[in-house]
User: What shape does this take?
Amino acid sequence: MLRELKEKVKKLKQETVPIYYALFDRRTPLSAKLLAALTVTYLLSPIDLIPDFIPVLGLLDDLIIVPLLITATLKLIPQYVLDDIKSKIDSKKKLPTKWYYALPVVVLYGYLLLVIFRHAKQWFNLF
Assistant: This one.
C-alpha cells in the first residue's frame, strides 16, 4: 500500500514542471498562480517543512502535503492551459533546486524556535 501511494505521489510530482510554466502563462487565473507559486517554492526548497528524519511525520510531507498542494493547484489551472503547456515542454524535465526557495521555511523555523525559547524561558524560569 505504501509503495502504491509513493508511485502516485511520484506521478503527481511530474506535474511540477507544467505548474511552474503555468505561473508565467497569462491565461492562468491569479488564484492558481498564487497556489502554484507556493507549490513550486515548497517543492524546490531544499528544506522541508517537516524534516524527513522525524519518524512518521517526515513521511507526511512527501505523502500528504505535496500531493495536496499539487492536486489543488492543478484543479485551479484551466485544463486547456495545462494541455497547451504540456504539449510544449518535455515531461521528463526537472526543475533545479534553489537555495533561496528555502528562505520562507528557514524564517518559519526561526520564528518557531524563538516562540519555543520564549515560552521555555517562562516555564522553566531560565535566565
Notes: The two ends are 50 Å apart (CA to CA). The chain has one domain: 2-98. The helical segments are 2-13, 16-23, 30-44, 57-76, 79-88, 103-124.
